[in-house]
Structure formats: C-alpha cells, structure tokens
C-alpha cells in the first residue's frame, strides 16, 4: 500500500501505547510499503504532565538499531516530530543537523502558548479568531525554521474544538492560508495530510471529515505538489487508517504521489 510517515511508539513518546515490534508486525501484515517512527520532541513544553516531552536522541538511535534489525527487509525509517515554538527554531535547526534522521516533521501543538488537548479554554474565542491565529502561527513556523521536511497536521487546532462545525476551512482565513501554503511551496516542503484528524472528525459523527477541498485546490494552484500521508498513530490499531480513501480523495485534486523520506531525501510513491 503506502508509506505511513507519522507514528509514535511507547519507547520515546509518552502518549503512545505500541511497541516498535507491534508497529513493524502490524505494518508488515498490512502490506505497507514502509513506516516512519517520528517520536515527539516538544522543547519547553508549557504543561507539567508528569513526564518529559523530549527524549535523548542518541539513545533513540542506539535503541532503534535493533528495530531495524527486527524489521529486516521491511522499510522502517527513523524520524522525529518537533513541537514548534518561535524561540526554538535555531535550536531545532542545529540539533537536527547533528543526527542521521530520515525525516523531520515540524508541528504546532500550541495556541497562544497552550495545547488545546489539555486546555479547552483555548476555544473561548470565536472560531474565526482562533483558526486565523493558528494558521498565522503555522506560517510563522514554516518561515522561521529551516531544517525540516514535512509540515505536520495543519488541522490540529480543530481536533478538540467544541464548535458545532469544527472543520478548518480556507474561507475562514484565506489570506492566512495563502501565506502558509505559499511558504511551504517556496521552501520545498511536504504538506502532511493527517488521517488521525480525519478519524477524529469521523468518530464525532461529522460527515465533513476530509480536508477542506478549497485548501487542497489552493495549495495545488500555488504550485504545491508534495503531499505526505501520516496516520499519527499512537497504537497499532490506527496504522495507515483511511489511507486508501484519503489517497483517492487527494488524487481527485491532481496530487499523484505520497512523499516519504530516506536520509532526508524525498521520494514519491503513487497515490492510486
């Protein structure tokens, strides 16, 4: 099938529940092309949740060597998911340059300095204000940081939103989206389509669960061609979830490849 570019294990991501062996065994049974382990690295995480949100990168590479041996001829890639804050860009750029990652996801899990997963009062403001500010912060992120490959879940902000129709849309903040999407194209990065976000909307009973078509059309019109599929799995049951359906949806807008990375070099596999 496909390469799943965004996943976490319990070894180095505190909110994950699957082992590396479970990840590899499940992906092999699903006949996936490959999978990337992209553990959380949230520098200066603002919430005290009792466990660190960073990990020792040297230990990660040492331990994951045995995962590669276990995977054998199955393609296992070693990546990282960086949690953006403006003051961390230079630190992240320098840190990533020191290690042989296959892929680097840059994500924003904060709104006004808080993670909506823990603090739902982030949504006390109206939806347009919240979503506009979040996409502006995403644009700041892409413009300010250099050493990354994939822009993670642009729709993270709507996952926990209490609004009746929570999906983020281009028409809610078109100028902000244009700035954000243009910066991805200008820097030659991949836009992640995060199927965990799709699944969360579907579990809420929301029919409109796919990424906004206008966002995808605008990205394409601006020259964006690189899409990266990620299930953002924290357990083995959601690996590669909804990939076939989402791939066909993306293909309908003209996207032809799922981008994956090996030693920080982009490769493409057919979406359909």
Describe what you observe in this structure.
By secondary structure, the protein is α/β, with parallel strands linked by helices. The chain has a single domain, classed as Metal-dependent hydrolases (TIM Barrel, Alpha-Beta Barrel), CATH 3.20.20.140. The protein is 34% helix and 17% strand. It has a seven-stranded parallel β-sheet with strand order 1-2-3-4-5-6-7. Helix 1 runs parallel beside helix 2 and helix 4 runs parallel beside helix 5.
How does the SSE layout of this entry go?
Layout: E1 3-4, H1 20-29, E2 34-41, H2 57-71, E3 75-83, H3 89-96, E4 103-107, H4 127-144, E5 150-151, H5 174-187, E6 190-194, H6 195-203, H7 213-221, E7 227-230, H8 243-251, E8 257-262, E9 265-270
Please state roughly what percent of the residues sit in beta strands, choosing from under 5%, 5-15%, 15-25%, 25-35%, 35-45% or over 45%.
15-25%
Q: Please work out how many helical segments DSSP would assign.
A: 8
Roughly what percent helix?
25-40%
Low-confidence sequence ranges: none
Subunit organisation of the chains: single chain
- 3D shape: globular
Strand order, main sheet: write it out: 1-2-3-4-5-6-7
**Count of strand segments:** 9
Main sheet summary: 7 strands, parallel
Mean pLDDT: 97
Label the structural class: alpha/beta
Ends: how far apart? 9 Å
Give keywords.
272 residues, alpha/beta, TIM Barrel, 7-stranded parallel β-sheet, 8 helices, 17% strand
Describe the structure concisely.
With 272 residues, the chain is of the alpha/beta class. 34% of the residues lie in helices and 17% in strands.
């Amino acid at each position: 099938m496909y390469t799943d570019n965004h996943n976490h294990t319990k070894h180095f991501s505190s909110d994950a529940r699957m082992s590396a062996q479970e990840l590899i065994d499940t992906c092999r049974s699903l006949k996936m092309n490959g999978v990337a382990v992209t553990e959380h690295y949230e520098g200066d995480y603002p919430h005290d949740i009792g466990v660190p949100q960073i990990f020792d990168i040297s230990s990660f590479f040492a331990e994951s060597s045995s995962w590669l041996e276990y995977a054998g001829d199955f393609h296992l890639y070693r990546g990282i998911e960086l949690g953006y804050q403006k003051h961390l860009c230079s630190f992240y750029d320098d840190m990533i340059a020191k290690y042989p990652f296959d892929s680097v996801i840059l994500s924003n899990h904060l709104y006004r300095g808080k993670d909506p997963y823990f603090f739902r009062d982030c949504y006390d403001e109206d939806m347009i204000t919240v979503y506009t500010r979040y996409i502006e912060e995403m644009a700041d992120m892409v413009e300010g940081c250099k050493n990354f490959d994939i822009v993670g879940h642009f729709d993270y902000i709507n996952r926990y939103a209490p609004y009746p129709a929570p999906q983020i849309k281009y028409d809610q903040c078109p100028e902000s989206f244009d700035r954000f999407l243009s910066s991805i194209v200008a820097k030659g990065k991949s836009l992640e389509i995060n199927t965990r976000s799709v699944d969360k909307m579907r579990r809420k009973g929301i029919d409109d669960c796919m990424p906004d078509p206008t966002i995808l059309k605008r990205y394409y019109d601006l020259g964006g061609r690189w899409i990266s599929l990620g299930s953002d799995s924290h357990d083995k049951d959601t690996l590669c979830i909804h990939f076939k359906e989402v791939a066909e949806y993306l293909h309908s807008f003209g996207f032809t490849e799922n981008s994956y990375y090996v030693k920080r070099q982009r490769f493409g596999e057919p979406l359909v």
